[in-house]
Amino acid sequence: MPSIKNWWTGEIDWATPAGELLQKFLASLPKDRPFHLTLYGSAPLQLTVDRQLLSGDVDLFSDDDEDLSALVAAAKLDKAHGGFYLEPGFELSFRTSPRWRQRAATVQRGNVTLTIPHPLDILLGKLDRLDAKDLKAFERTHQLTGHPTAAELQHELQNAVDLFRPAFDEDSPNRYPENTRRLWREMFGADIDIRRDIIEPASARRRQGYGESPPDYKGALGQ
Question: Distance between CA 79 and CA 46 in Å, rounded?
Fold first, then answer.
C-alpha cells in the first residue's frame, strides 16, 4: 500500500482563522523556555487541507502534559473571553492511531515546536463523534485529496484496533463501531463488518507477531 504521507505535505496556511489565532497565542508565550505543542480537532484540517473547514475553537495540548489553561487565559484567548478561542486539553483527549506521531508534521516558531497530525489521524479521531461537521471533514478531505480510500482507512483502523475496545466509562459507550459502519455507508456507499474487516485481521497480525492471544474484542462487541 502506498505511503500515507505521500498525499499530504503538511504545509500550513497561517492566514486561516486557526492560523491567526495560533500566531497570537505563540507570540504571547514566555520566551525563557521551549514549548512543544500539538494541535488536534478540526484546526489541522483547516490549516493544511481546506481553509473552509471551520470550527468554533482550536484544540491543542502540551507534549509534556503541561496544563495550558493559565497561559491561554493570560493571552485572553480562552472561551471565557468569547469569540473564536483556544481549547487546551491533554494528549489523552486525542484518540487516534498509535502511529500518529510517525507521520505528523512539525514546524518551529521561535521557542515553540508545533506538531500538526496527519489528516488521516485527525479523521480517525473524529470517528468517536461523527456529527455532521465531522462527516463533512471526511468528505471534503477525500474530495480534495482523493484520500483516505476505503482500503487505506480500513488498514489504518486495523492498526488502531484498540479504538474498538469497550469504553471504560459505562455512561460513555464506545461509538467507534457504529460510527465506522455509518461512515462506510455515507462515504463509500458500502457496508463494513467490524469483526471480519478490522478486528480479525488485526488480531491475526498480533498473534503472528507476538504469539499471544489477543483480547476478546469479538465478545466485547457482542458480534
Answer: 20
Closest by CA position to 85, among listed 48, 56, 44: 56
Q: Please check whether residues 96 and 72 belong to one and the same domain.
A: yes
Handedness of CA 28, 31, 35, 38 (dihedral sign): positive
Same domain, 113 and 134: no
207 pLDDT more than 80: yes
Return the closest-CA partner of residue 101 out of 85, 120, 88.
120
Grid cell for residue 83: 469569540
Whether the CB-CB separation of 10 and 48 falls below 8 Å is answered with yes
28 and 129 in a common domain: no
More confident residue, 215 or 121: 121
pLDDT tens-digit series, residues 82-128: 899 999 999 999 999 999 999 999 999 999 999 999 999 999 999 99
C-alpha cell at 36: 512543544
DSSP strand E in 144-199: where?
Answer: none
pLDDT digits (tens, 9 = 90+) for 190-206: 999 999 999 999 999 88
Residue 38: strand, helix, or coil? strand
Q: What is the pLDDT of residue 173?
A: 84
pLDDT for the residue numbered 213 = 56
Domain end, chosen from 60, 93, 118, is at 118
Dist. CA 23–CA 163, nearest whole Å: 33
Last residue of a domain, one of 97, 118, 139: 118
Kind of pairing between the strands at 105-109 and 85-89: unpaired
